[in-house]
UniProtKB/TrEMBL annotation, chains A, B:
<dbReference type="GO" id="GO:0006351">
    <property type="term" value="P:DNA-templated transcription"/>
</dbReference>
<protein>
    <submittedName>
        <fullName>CCAAT/enhancer binding protein (C/EBP) 1</fullName>
    </submittedName>
</protein>
<feature type="domain" description="BZIP">
    <location>
        <begin position="92"/>
        <end position="155"/>
    </location>
</feature>
<dbReference type="InterPro" id="IPR004827">
    <property type="entry name" value="bZIP"/>
</dbReference>
<dbReference type="GO" id="GO:0000978">
    <property type="term" value="F:RNA polymerase II cis-regulatory region sequence-specific DNA binding"/>
</dbReference>
<dbReference type="GO" id="GO:0000981">
    <property type="term" value="F:DNA-binding transcription factor activity, RNA polymerase II-specific"/>
</dbReference>
<feature type="region of interest" description="Disordered">
    <location>
        <begin position="60"/>
        <end position="101"/>
    </location>
</feature>
<dbReference type="Pfam" id="PF07716">
    <property type="entry name" value="bZIP_2"/>
</dbReference>
<dbReference type="GO" id="GO:0030099">
    <property type="term" value="P:myeloid cell differentiation"/>
</dbReference>
<keyword id="KW-0175">Coiled coil</keyword>
<feature type="coiled-coil region">
    <location>
        <begin position="110"/>
        <end position="144"/>
    </location>
</feature>
<dbReference type="InterPro" id="IPR046347">
    <property type="entry name" value="bZIP_sf"/>
</dbReference>
<dbReference type="InterPro" id="IPR031106">
    <property type="entry name" value="C/EBP"/>
</dbReference>
<feature type="compositionally biased region" description="Basic and acidic residues">
    <location>
        <begin position="89"/>
        <end position="101"/>
    </location>
</feature>
<comment type="similarity">
    <text>Belongs to the bZIP family. C/EBP subfamily.</text>
</comment>
Amino acid sequence: MSVSDSPPSSICMFALHHQSSSSQDSGLYGQHMVFPKTPDGRSMEQMMGFVPYSSCVTPSSSEREDFSQFVLPPPASTLHPSGQKRRPSKDSVEYRQRRERNNIAVRKSRDKARRRVQMTQQRALQLQDENQRLQLHIQHLSHEVDSLRHYLSQRHLQAREQDTAGEDVC
Amino acid sequence: MSVSDSPPSSICMFALHHQSSSSQDSGLYGQHMVFPKTPDGRSMEQMMGFVPYSSCVTPSSSEREDFSQFVLPPPASTLHPSGQKRRPSKDSVEYRQRRERNNIAVRKSRDKARRRVQMTQQRALQLQDENQRLQLHIQHLSHEVDSLRHYLSQRHLQAREQDTAGEDVC
DNA sequence: AACCATTGCGCAATGG
DNA sequence: GCCATTGCGCAATGGT
């Protein structure tokens, strides 16, 4: 019904198995997997031959639909047979709540960062304008100083002439 | 051996099954899953009851290790029974190569963005300094103009006094 | 211990 | 088809 009729999306159930070591994790349905990176910073997925899951495409414009019939209440408890201290609370509700809160925090933080960057750019532009204005002001004042100095030197000359003229008179 | 001895990491193999519609994808080992979002922008995973996979933890400082024994060469071909045009090339090699190239491009792009931001910040600071210098310069020039004007007015007074004195003499 | 904030990273969509 | 950019979620980590 509602699931398969939105063309681009498909709902997928899957199981996990792992192959290694500390088998304390119960089966989990993965949403995001992170594999160890090789020291050179390259991914290891290739070595692993893992093929990422990719058919659960985000429906770009999704209508609200009822998926309740698909909701499997998760295992929740996840007993840990070995006495190992259990992973904080990976499975289910608690985990999802933390994830969701973090996603919100991430969005918030990134918006903040974006705004900060924009402000910085804007400030740089403003400062550049201001700078140009100040330089023009300086140019103007410099000319004024030059003019005054020149005028003063003229006055000096005139005064000296007058002095010598006065001496002649007397 | 090499896998399980780095405490925080574990290697996990898993299979996917999906439940819906266009079943043309073969089993995939997912690395990153994106589920459709509800129209309010919130995640739908919760409704689905999916529990994300989370025990494949990134070993913060990984040594180079041999995972070749775990590499399952992926199904690769993925025949499409129905005459549907196949998804560009989801499965395997081709896909992984594109992903890897994109990951590289992403890192590159983000480094570039980071550098750009840093440059902008630095430029803003430089402009701020420059600005302060210019303002001081302006202050200095303004004082100079004031002094010259004051001096000039004094000279005017002196000259006028001398003029009147000269008249007295003659 | 519990939270939020920040950051690096991979995936997918999209732009050029 | 390819690379560049961008939004997004996950997990690690930093700060309280």
